[in-house]
Specification:
The complex is a heterodimer. Chain A is about 75% helix and about 0% strand. By secondary structure, chain A is an all-alpha fold. The relative contact order of chain A is 0.16. By secondary structure, chain B is α/β, with parallel strands linked by helices. The chains are: A mainly alpha, B alpha/beta.
Chain lengths: ~240, ~475
């Protein structure tokens, strides 16, 4: 158990964290390249900047979120805040970063009580989101496997983390929970850039990409006809 | 009351009218290979890959789009969820054209494109009216209207496009009349003469529809069906331009603003715009003026893309020009003429991005004392139900007017307006049919039809 724990919070943590950071940089850069390539191929390069900015900021901030589905939006926002703040700002995590990569933010980290409450909020919001996804026929119908599995997976480190920090348990159980906590965290890091969670870096450029895609390549239509061997054909 | 009745009827019944349009002939080759080849060619040459790549990575499946889709509201059929519809194409992209997806498929298997999947796409993407209202609510920034446009483009290369649209486009591009309504030039001239006579009879003033005037400020392209169905709109436009002394012309070689390419094919979009370009260059007009039509105006903005050279003309919609003339005081409209309650329907193609929203309202408010807003309106408006070419498919009229147009019917009823102003050829036909099929009160009218009733013309007969 001890060696697994050491492995999970040592080399595996460093590896998975690197996969996440490099993976997210990769998807972000690829999307940027796609967008700029579209810009260079298009003749008309002017996009509706105000519209793009309004929608982009509207959902990142999130000003537009409450226009429809206000309850779902509120829970979702709470979940996102918890997901972002707790793992990053928790004192123990800052310490982990300090030990692993020699850099951290110990002086601005969250105290135990705030972190515990935030964890409880996040767990509750996560459970509610799963219930809403399963109970609503529309959400259920369009959901893929990852849409059901992600909230479940995200709850594992939160629940185990809460137990380790707040519940009096035997040292062996503590170590087991801690190992699961760190292993699930490592798994999450690895999966982030490969799944829909990549939206954490891609969202700010989604509207820009859409606007770019609407700017067509002048000769594309005729070239496609040539590739398909339909040159000169009438409709 | 009536709106409630429709709503109750829709909710209590499970029977949705057939939404099966006719195509010219069923292709006999291997459709799966055909689909993938076309998709590959389009991805290679166009800019769609950027969007598809992004969408497959960010789609969170939150179902927010269901809250604003007028088609889903009416059918309550999960297959009409915009995000589900888009996933039909995104799943093909992910499996066959993305690195991660094809790698995953090789190891674990999973989704494969089938004949059945193509049939599903064939009809599903024509249930969507490409109004793009769901874009405003998608936190992931997915434009389902863009996906609808692209899928229809792929399907059009397989000859899976509603026949009504193909026949019109073929006439426009390769026919003798070179317009979607197949109006010969002689008939256009007769129609114009008739309209001029009507205007003279009404006002005692010679108001002309100038034909083939070179070096005019504006070359005017109306959705050509207006010459058959919307005489009042055209007379209103001619009267406004005459009164303000605007230099304008109609081209005799090409005079159709309709461009179904925006609905289903970039190839058609470009080819139609090249015809427009030729006519603009022939008459050396400075600006392009588009009549009352949403899609025609938006598709004309692509002239910048398809124009040969960098001297592409400015695109002006008639609402923008009339607004400018009203604000500058170059035309006067009598505020005592229209006493009935008036409301305004925003055509999606000019309103969704908040482009031409305030202009028509300011014009209407300048002479309609009893103006009421439709809710929601402006950029948040609901589609008339006939958008993206659906209105031209007569065999699905019942679907259009009772399902796709249900939301609009409810909105109109809520305003209680007598005049419903819709400055778009598509919306006009669709809303008229919706009013008839649902036994609703109200008169559908163009903005310039209403202006014609109240415009002050110098030297006109008193009772004009």
């Amino acid at each position: 158990m001890d060696s697994l724990l050491e492995f999970a919070k040592g080399p595996l943590f460093r590896f998975s964290f690197a996969v996440m950071i490099l993976g997210l940089i990769r998807v972000f850069i690829l999307s940027l390249i796609n967008g700029f390539e579209a810009k260079s191929k298009a003749k008309d390069k002017v996009i509706p900047k105000n519209f793009v900015t309004k929608l982009t900021l509207g959902f990142i901030l999130p000003i537009r979120a409450f226009r429809v589905k206000p309850v779902y939006s509120f829970i979702s926002i709470l979940f996102h805040i918890g997901l972002l703040l707790t793992p990053i700002l928790l004192f123990d995590h800052a310490l982990l970063f300090d030990n692993s990569i020699g850099f951290s933010w110990l002086n601005i980290s969250l105290s135990g009580t705030i972190a515990s409450n935030l964890t409880l909020f996040t767990i509750s919001a996560g459970i509610l989101l799963i219930i809403l996804r399963i109970s609503d026929k529309k959400s259920r119908f369009i959901s893929r496997k990852q849409d059901f599995l992600w909230p479940l997976l995200l709850l594992v480190p939160f629940i185990t983390g809460y137990v380790c920090g707040n519940v009096v348990i035997s040292p062996l159980t503590y170590k087991t929970f801690l190992t699961i906590h760190i292993l699930s965290g490592d798994l999450i890091f690895i999966l982030i850039p490969l799944t829909k969670i990549a939206h954490c870096v891609l969202l700010p450029i989604s509207q820009w990409i859409t606007a770019r895609a609407w700017k067509f390549v002048p000769e594309a239509g005729e070239n496609i006809e040539k590739i398909l061997g339909k040159e000169g054909q009438k409709l | 009351m009536v709106a409630e009745k429709i709503k109750t009827k829709q909710k209590s019944t499970v029977k949705i009218p057939e939404m099966k349009y006719n195509i010219e002939k069923t292709p006999d080759s291997d459709r799966v290979t055909q689909f993938l080849n076309i998709f590959a060619a389009i991805l290679k040459e166009s800019n769609y890959r950027a969007a598809l790549d992004q969408y497959t990575k960010v789609s969170a499946k939150c179902a927010r789009c269901t809250t604003v889709c007028h088609v889903y509201h009416a059918t309550q059929d999960v297959r009409d969820i915009p995000c589900y519809r888009s996933e039909l194409l995104l799943s093909v992209y992910r499996r066959y054209f993305s690195f991660e997806g094809s790698l995953y498929a090789r190891i674990f298997g999973g989704f494969e494109l089938t004949e059945e999947h193509i049939s599903k796409m064939q009809y599903s993407f024509w249930n969507c009216t490409a109004c793009r209202k769901c874009l405003l609510e998608c936190p992931s920034g997915i434009d389902h209207g863009l996906i609808t446009h692209l899928t229809r483009y792929i399907l059009s290369e397989m000859k899976l496009t509603p026949r009504a649209l193909v026949i019109s486009t073929r006439e426009q591009l390769f026919g003798l009349t070179e317009n979607t309504s197949a109006i010969p030039l002689i008939a256009l001239k007769n129609s114009i003469e008739f309209l001029e006579e009507e205007l003279f009879e009404a006002f005692g003033v010679n108001i002309k529809f100038p034909l083939d005037v070179e070096d005019a400020e504006y070359i005017f392209f109306a959705p050509v069906s207006d010459y058959l169905m919307e005489a009042e709109t055209l007379m209103g436009i001619a009267t406004v331009l005459h009164t303000a002394g605007v230099s304008w012309t109609i081209g005799s070689k090409y005079f159709d603003a309709i461009n179904y390419g925006l609905f289903y094919s970039d190839l058609v979009l470009g080819r139609v715009l090249n015809k427009m370009e030729e006519e603009v260059k022939r008459l050396r007009a400075k600006k392009v003026l588009i009549g009352e039509c949403g899609h025609a105006t938006r598709s004309a903005t692509f002239l910048k893309t398809f124009w040969h050279g960098d001297d592409n003309p400015e695109i002006v919609n008639i609402l923008q020009l009339t607004h400018k003339l009203v604000m500058e005081g170059k035309i006067k409209i009598d505020p005592d003429k229209i006493k009935e309650k008036v409301t305004y329907h925003d055509p999606c193609n000019i309103a969704r991005q908040n482009w031409i929203v305030k202009e028509p309202r300011e014009i209407l408010k300048s002479f309609c004392r009893n103006y009421v807003e439709m809710y929601p309106g402006g950029a948040d408006n609901y589609c008339c139900g006939g958008g993206s070419g659906l209105v031209s498919i007569d065999e699905i009229r019942k679907y259009r007017t009772t399902i796709a147009g249900q939301k609009k019917a409810e909105q109109i009823q809520q305003t209680g307006a007598h005049y419903i102003v819709a400055p778009c050829a598509n919306c006009k036909k669709q809303i008229r049919e919706t009013l008839t099929d649902n036994n609703l009160d109200g008169e559908l009218i163009g903005l310039h039809d209403l202006i014609l009733k109240a415009i002050v013309i110098k030297g006109a007969k008193q009772d004009g």
